[in-house]
Each structure stands twice: as structure tokens, then as C-alpha cells.
Write a structure and sequence with these properties.
Elements (H helix, E strand, L loop, with lengths): L6 E2 L4 H14 L23 H5 L2 H5 L21 H6 L15 H15 L3 H10 L8 E2 L13 E3 L1 H12 L3 E2 L2 E2 L3 H8 L11 H6 L11 E2 L5 E5 L3 E6 L4 E4 L1
Antiparallel strand pairs: 1-3, 2-3, 4-5, 6-7, 7-8, 8-9
Length: 248
């Protein structure tokens, strides 16, 4: 974890995948209302349920795909090397958009959608749009057996690069006087979308940064802050009211 060393971001990778979706929306390649099944007609189950038919990109972004349990753990035991098919064949038991359940394979699906519509892996799509403008280089991102970036995890870069990403969001998508990503997307992605613990006592919610809801692959915090958040203490915390970014 020396400053010049790359390290794996775990789920902090998700916020970068969300940003790729933001670029694709801005370029009018997709909308957040697009149906997930429309991108993968070859991988659908024999019978498409109404819930699966109604599943949108936005539902994936806000971790409300409706599957329970989260199918990500199936990857390590499944014989199917096509992860999108595994996801689409996992039953959806709750109406999409209604219930929060953390789902890393849902983020993978966002990565697969970006690759489907751009012809490029997320890392390659983001390079000229995000990484090069911010001076982030020497990065890599794990892929699935089909050559699609894992999306929900697997990105490796330096702590300073995390800080640059947070600073871009603090500046509402502006970098060195140039609008890198629309400010409207920054607002949309980082604002409250869904309560991950609707039944928690109000006192607990008021005292915990872990119970402030979820945006588009960003967690909300108290004090109107938000964060990218990965295992083992990978944090990019953006505090707009303090004009501050913390990368850990």
C-alpha cells in the first residue's frame, strides 16, 4: 500500500462501473430505463418472468434487482462460464426497484452492457474518457472467462488515483476547466435512491454512516456525504459541504 503501488479496490470498483454507465447514457448509447433482457436475448431462461422482463439498468445501478439471495457466490461453483446467463437465470423474487440487496453480479451486468453497446471493455471505454484526463495510468481490471471486466470488483489502481476520482465527483464532473462527465449524472448517481434498511430504528439511522441509503453504486453517508466503498477499508469519501475528499 505504498503510494506508488496499485492495489485491488474490491467493491470500490463499482463506482467506476457506474461512471461508465454515465458516459454511455450521456453518449445516448443507453438509458437507465432500458430493459436488461434486451441486451442478452441469447441468454434468457425458457420462461421470462414479468419481474425479469421489467428489470432495468437503473435497478441494477441501485442494487434492487430483486434476486434473493445474491447470486454472486454461484460464480465460484457454477459450470457455466457465461456469467450473464447465470444472472438472468437466477429467479427474481421481489419486484425490481422495491427491495435493496447488495449484488455484485448485478454490477457485472452493467459492465457487460457497456461492452455490448460500445464493443469495448469498461477499462478501455473509460481510458480516454476518465483515466487519461485524470492522469490515471498503469491500471488493470480483472475479466470473466468471456473477456468482460468483472465490474463489481477487480479494478487495481493507486490511492492517489482514488482521490482524483473523488475530486472529479466533488467538482461535479469538472476537471482542469473541462466538463469530463455531466454534472447532472454526478448528482443522479450520488443522490439517495433506495433505503437499504427501511425497518431499522430511526435512532440507529441517525447515528450510523452505514444506514444512509444507496445511489447508483455509491453509498450515502451522514452530513450529505457519499462514498465509494470496498472490502478491507477501500474508501473514497466525498464531503461536498466541507469541500473535501478522503481516499483510504
Amino acid at each position: 500500500y505504498k503510494p506508488e503501488l496499485r492495489h485491488t479496490l474490491y467493491s470500490t470498483s463499482k463506482s467506476f462501473t457506474s461512471t461508465a454507465i454515465g458516459f454511455a447514457v450521456n453518449e445516448k448509447l443507453i438509458t437507465t430505463e432500458d430493459k436488461v433482457i434486451s441486451f442478452f436475448p441469447d441468454y434468457l431462461p425458457d420462461s421470462v418472468s414479468p419481474f425479469l422482463a421489467g428489470l432495468t439498468i437503473q435497478h441494477l445501478l441501485m442494487m434492487s434487482a430483486g434476486q434473493d439471495p445474491d447470486p454472486t457466490s454461484l460464480l465460484w461453483t457454477a459450470s457455466d462460464s457465461i456469467w450473464a446467463r447465470l444472472f438472468l437465470n437466477t429467479p427474481i423474487v421481489n419486484k425490481p426497484g422495491s427491495t435493496f440487496l447488495y449484488n455484485s453480479l448485478a454490477t457485472y451486468m452493467l459492465s457487460a452492457i457497456v461492452q455490448k453497446v460500445t464493443g469495448e471493455k469498461v477499462i478501455d471505454y473509460l481510458t480516454p474518457r476518465l483515466f487519461e484526463p485524470l492522469g490515471i495510468n498503469g491500471i488493470d481490471w480483472e475479466t470473466d472467462p468471456m473477456g468482460i471486466n468483472t465490474g463489481g470488483w477487480g479494478l487495481r489502481l493507486k490511492t492517489e488515483d482514488m482521490a482524483k476520482f473523488g475530486q472529479l465527483y466533488l467538482q461535479k464532473g469538472m476537471w482542469n476547466g473541462k466538463q469530463i462527465i455531466p454534472s447532472s449524472w454526478v448528482e443522479e448517481a450520488t443522490s439517495f435512491k433506495i433505503d437499504q434498511a427501511p425497518d431499522a430504528p430511526q435512532a440507529d439511522k441517525e447515528s450510523s454512516d452505514w444506514m444512509q441509503g444507496y445511489g447508483y453504486q455509491f453509498w450515502r453517508c451522514r452530513n450529505n456525504a457519499y462514498r465509494a466503498d470496498g472490502a478491507y477499508g477501500q474508501y473514497i469519501i466525498v464531503l461536498p459541504e466541507k469541500d473535501a475528499v478522503v481516499a483510504i
